[in-house]
């Protein structure tokens, strides 16, 4: 049994950045849609049931199955690669890239997005959610050596636990390694949230070109995954 590769700081930062960026951009651009955060969509769906005028609830209802479709597509793709002895990293990046570009194009064509959402705006939201479903599945299946890159609650919890242990003198080399493993995706996610908000307000859905470029770079230059 081979040991997993050590966590890559650049890969952890970039994938965390992508998760925070796309999630925040979707939240601002599509009236509170969390493309990468199923828990948040459940909360918003519950709120919309109480006040239907507050959030377009149809998108929240459809976002969950779209997320599942993205996960299933990534799982089937990875399984297909495994059966043929092919490295699945590049195909998984490509799947996310295609869905993200489709999200960007539909979003651009739907601008300005109104509260009574057009079919293109609805498609943009569902494609973005599917893209992040594929991203989450790829993180679980192929990037298990990294901390989760789109769900930060567990990352914050583990990082604080390990930091407290280090400060009280109970940490060891494994504690230090975990701090680095969980810090970089968390840091990237936070920066991505801020960047996604500012760049969407400045450029609209074309701002999705940045996370698309990150995926393309990792797909075309596998060495970045070890940096």
Could you explain the architecture of this structure?
This protein has 8 helices and no strands. It is an all-alpha fold. The model has no long low-confidence stretch (mean pLDDT 88).
Mean pLDDT: 88
Reported for the largest beta sheet, the result is: none
What is the CA-CA span between the terminal residues?
A: 24 Å
Give the helix/strand class. Answer: mainly alpha
Portion in helices: over 70%
- Total number of helical segments? 8
H and E order: HHHHHHHH
Q: Please tally the β strands and state the result.
A: 0
The coarse overall form would be globular
CA-based gyration radius: 18 Å
Unreliably modeled segments? none
Estimate the strand proportion. Answer: under 5%
Furnish the topology, listing elements before pairings:
Elements (H helix, E strand, L loop, with lengths): L8 H21 L8 H13 L6 H27 L5 H22 L8 H24 L10 H15 L5 H31 L5 H12 L7
Short description:
By secondary structure, the protein is mainly alpha-helical. The protein has helices at residues 9-29, 38-50, 57-83, 89-110, 119-142, 153-167, 173-203, 209-220.
How would you describe this structure in keywords?
227 residues, mainly alpha, 8 helices
């Amino acid at each position: 049994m081979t040991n997993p590769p050590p966590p890559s700081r650049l890969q952890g930062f970039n994938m965390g950045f992508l998760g925070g960026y796309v999630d925040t951009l979707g939240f601002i651009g599509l009236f509170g849609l969390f493309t990468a955060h199923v828990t948040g969509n459940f909360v918003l769906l519950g709120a919309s049931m109480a006040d239907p005028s507050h959030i377009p609830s149809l998108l929240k209802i459809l976002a969950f199955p779209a997320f599942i479709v993205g996960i299933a597509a990534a799982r089937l793709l990875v399984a297909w690669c495994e059966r043929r002895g092919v490295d699945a990293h590049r195909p998984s990046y490509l799947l996310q890239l295609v869905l993200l570009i489709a999200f960007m194009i539909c979003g651009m064509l739907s601008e300005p997005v109104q509260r009574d959402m057009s079919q293109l705006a609805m498609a943009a939201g569902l494609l973005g959610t599917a893209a992040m479903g594929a991203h989450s599945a790829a993180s679980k299946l192929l990037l298990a050596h990294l901390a989760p890159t789109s769900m930060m609650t567990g990352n914050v919890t583990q990082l604080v636990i390990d930091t407290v242990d280090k400060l009280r003198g109970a940490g060891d080399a494994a504690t230090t390694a975990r701090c680095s493993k969980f810090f970089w995706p968390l840091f990237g996610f936070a920066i991505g949230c801020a960047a996604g908000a500012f760049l969407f307000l400045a450029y609209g859905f074309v701002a999705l070109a940045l996370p698309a470029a990150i995926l393309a770079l990792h797909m075309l230059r596998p060495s970045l995954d070890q940096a």
